[in-house]
Each structure stands twice: as C-alpha cells, then as structure tokens.
Write a structure and sequence with these properties.
108 residues, 4% strand, single chain, elongated, 69% helix, two-stranded antiparallel ribbon, 5 helices, mainly alpha
C-alpha cells in the first residue's frame, strides 16, 4: 500500500495537512511548486489531490441528498473520514512513506 521514498518529508506531510485548510488547492499548489526530482513530495501531493477531489464529489452528492435527508447524515461522516485519513496520511508522509488513500482512483 505504501512505499519508502527519499525526499522532503515535511513538505510531503504538508501536502496532506494543507487539505484540511485549503481542500484540493493546498495539495495542488504543493504538487506544482515541488522540485521535479522530489518524488516523495510529488506522489504524496498527487495522492492528496486525488483524495480531496473524491471528497469534494462526495460532499456535492451529499448536498444533493439533503433533499431526502440522508445527506444530513452523510456530511458529518464524510468530514470525519476526511479528517482521520488526512491525519493518518500526514503521519505516514512525515515518516518518509508515499501514502495511498483507500478506495481512491488515480485521477491526476
């Protein structure tokens, strides 16, 4: 699921952590601004961006489903899943691993 890699672990962890504040914009900026040779940062930022795109899609679907009230249950659940997985990914990236979020397709 995850692989050891060499690179800036702080920036790799920040790629995940920035998603809690700036959604998909944080990981996107880090992916664009990272050195081309730093595969750890690039891969973690790409994985964080893919996950945040999926979270954004899930929030939109839940927003639509609030009409039938099921979305009111899904929105806090999505937020909790996002928080837990981002914290887990941040810890793994800080340890020098490329974290891949579960059930997240490679969009980028």
């Amino acid at each position: 699921m995850s692989a050891q890699s060499q690179g800036n672990t702080t920036l790799a962890a920040l790629a995940h952590l920035s998603a809690l504040i700036a959604s998909f914009i944080g990981p996107l900026l880090i992916m664009i601004l990272a050195d081309d040779g730093d595969t750890l940062v690039k891969e973690n930022a790409k994985n964080a961006l893919n996950f945040q795109i999926m979270i954004f899609i899930a929030i939109i679907i839940s927003g639509v489903l609030t009409v039938v009230l099921i979305g009111l249950l899904l929105l806090p659940l999505i937020a909790l899943i996002d928080l837990i997985l981002v914290i887990l990914a941040t810890v793994k990236a800080n340890g020098g691993e490329v974290y891949e979020y579960p059930f997240t397709p490679s969009i980028i």
